[in-house]
Amino acid sequence: MIKLKLLFSFLFILFSPCANAESLSGSRPNIILIITDDQGYGPVGAHGHPWIETPNLDKLYSQSTRFERFLVSPTCSPTRAAIMSGRHPLKNGVTHTILERERMALSTYTIAQGLSSVNYQTGIFGKWHLGDEKFYQPENRGFNEVFIHGAGGIGQAYACSCADAPGNKYFDPVIRHNGKFVKTKGYCTNIFFNAALGWIKEVKKSSKPFFAYITTNAPHGPFIAPPSNTNKLKDLGFAEKQAGFYGMIENIDENVGLLTNKLSEWGLDNNTLLIFMSDNGMTGGGSGRPGKEVAKGYPFFNAGQKGLKGGVDEGSVRVPFFVRWLGKIKEGSDVKRIAAHIDIFPTFADLAGLKLDTKLSKQVEGRSLLKLIADPEADWEDRFLFTQKARWKTGSEPSDHMWKNFSVRNQRYRLVGQNLFDMISDPSQKFDISKANPEVVNTMRKAYEEFWNQARPLMVNEKVPMSKVRPYHVWYKEQLVGKGIPAWNSPKL
């Protein structure tokens, strides 16, 4: 009987996920990073949302190690710059989402470049938003498959170089595919996932691992989703915007289900690390407003957090971060330690066996998360994470704004200006405890000042002249009058 019990124990250990950080490091899995636009933390069924239906994200949640306090930037371009670089976006020159201040400094070495250097295939599908001019485009920043729209959103255009192809819509958009425009058919999110899956289907035939960066423009406004996703919500009493916003998320959920099903069908589950996240806190445009019903009988929901997109409170920068690697890491585990967008680069580098040389180690200020992924209770040295809503007027001196719209976070506290909150006992930030803890306030402000002094010389886009042309408009017109815009055929999956 004792021998039988020992045998069962051995088999349990043998066949249960029991990876440690050392075994994950350099294991070179395929990597898929899904990032949604303006979804935030709340609109996921598994996070307690009272009406939205996200069965596939809920399943992903149950299969994942979840980072409960994963923090990003208040808006999209800064977060994307941090992911690509492993350092705070201000240090990449990214202080805004438009006006040439969304361009990631050309001196920045990207994670796509790093993964390419160690023989990964790299693809981006959807939103780039780190510069629309030629040298800033992802095909020149380490991606060998590029399938993207321009600007910060489909159809957007501003008085600068930041602009999508003219006249673009969420249905049947013109997409820039490896340097040439193609005319697609269907809804944008479906198209981006189909393009990514078609590429994955092809690259899996090779011996090379891949990095697929699936970056939807949904649920960013305008809030437009397929009728199949919005009609149900309209029937429940939701207005056009709200039905569009939540419908876009339910459509994302359907595509996550398609992707995970295909990974299983193609035998990629056990060699693919899959991450789901959002780029900033939930937008208030389509999600409703705190204290008001979104529709009759449906109260506004933001998971008990203070703050929405564009702010510096917890709800402005906290996002889902689900890490799934079936058969390799624990399912259904929660990481309580704070982590951030700057940690993604070193995590992927660690997985891929990409060594951070002296020059690169000076750029990358985040930490590999493999230690926490392998053991959510692992020792983890506390640190300060910084948030700055850097949307000051172009041409002004950034240092005049350094003490405005900023916050500092460590494991226990969030400092917002002069107000201090205990995020463990008061996660909704209801009680300012700064007067009782002046030493904490002073320490956090001092850390922020040191951070700012490092970042300020690297804000290279602050006084650059506005581009006189919109590259996507120029390239589109050149191709239109030349060879024309060919149809893109969705791959057979």
Q: What CATH architecture label of the largest domain applies?
A: 3-Layer(aba) Sandwich
Q: Average pLDDT, to the nearest integer? A: 95
Number of domains: 2
Q: Give me the number of helical elements.
A: 15
Q: Which class of the largest domain in CATH terms?
A: Alpha Beta
| The CATH homology group name of the largest domain | Alkaline Phosphatase, subunit A
Please summarize the sheet with the most strands.
Answer: 10 strands, mixed
Strand order of the largest sheet: 7-6-5-4-8-1-9-13-2-14
Low-confidence stretches: 1-16
User: What is the CA-CA span between the terminal residues?
Assistant: 50 Å
Question: What's the total count of β strands?
Answer: 19
Helix content: 25-40%
CATH topology assignment of the largest domain: Alkaline Phosphatase, subunit A
Overall morphology: globular
Structural class determined from secondary elements: alpha/beta
Radius of gyration: 22 Å
Strand content: 15-25%
Give the SSE layout:
Blueprint lengths: L1 H14 L5 H4 L5 E7 L18 H9 L1 E3 L2 E2 L4 H10 L25 H7 L3 E7 L17 E5 L24 E4 L2 E4 L4 H16 L6 E6 L11 H9 L4 H26 L6 E7 L5 H4 L5 E3 L2 E2 L14 H4 E2 L1 E4 L8 E3 L3 E2 L3 H9 L5 H6 L6 H5 L10 E4 L17 E4 L3 E4 L2 E4 L15 H18 L15 H11 L12
Parallel strand pairs: 1-8, 1-9, 2-14, 3-15, 4-5, 4-8
Antiparallel strand pairs: 2-13, 3-12, 5-6, 6-7, 9-13, 10-11, 16-17, 17-18, 18-19
Helix pairs in contact: 6-8, 7-8
